[in-house]
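Q: Is it fine to ask for two folds in a single conversation?
A: Yes, each is treated on its own. Send the first.
Q: Here.
A: Result:
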Amino acid sequence: MPKGVERLKKRAEFLRVAGVRRRWATPGMVLQAARDNSCADAGRLRVGFTATKKVGNAVVRNRIKRRLRALADEMLPDHAKTGWDYVLIGRAQTPDRDFASLRADLIVALKKVGAYKEKGHHA
């Protein structure tokens, strides 16, 4: 896990992010984002992953979450603002979508929810 990226684990954390209503759906995923005042000054961000039973059995859901974890670990440190919590939700297309498209989906979603970090800028 990259430096500065932590995991959301508790259900209450996921519900808090879902309750903020900053979300954007792309073909490869849904991104939910919420400012986290408790870690804004620490220069870190937190991310959680989920996939509903609608997208497939446990094997498919685990594959979706593995792909989303790899995507987040690669992209969020450079492209997402710190001081935010993010939840990536897998969709039916996530397991088969090529990784370059997933990267593009994440960038679009970050821009749409206002959490995109321009290159060279800090939070």
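Q: Second one now.
A: Result:
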Amino acid sequence: MTLASFALILTGVLLNAAAQLLLKAGTNALGVITPTVSNALPLAGSIATNPHFLGGFACYGVSVLVWILALSRVPVSIAYPMLSIGYVVNALAAGYLFGEALTGGRWLGMGFIIAGIVLLARS
């Protein structure tokens, strides 16, 4: 895999991770979301005007375009498993930004993911 191909994959993964974090920030702003018939329109309006949700949707859209570029250069059997980098990024960012717990099991899992990514990238 070339450095340019890896950069595309990593950019797609980071955009996807940013989307997840922005969506979480949006849900933190709205609180628990329980859609019902009576609140469907106000809820949709709240989501459609929340800057965190809008940023998350934008990151998803751009990440799809970048991912298509990456898949045109790298076999999907290599590219797709690299999406797991997003778990590491999100776990670390969620711990920092939202105070989510990073338990020993999560650290161990992230270590396995990183080791797997290194093996994949070198294959």
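Q: Anything structural to flag on that second result?
A: Two points. Residues 3-122 form one domain. The chain has a mean pLDDT of 93.
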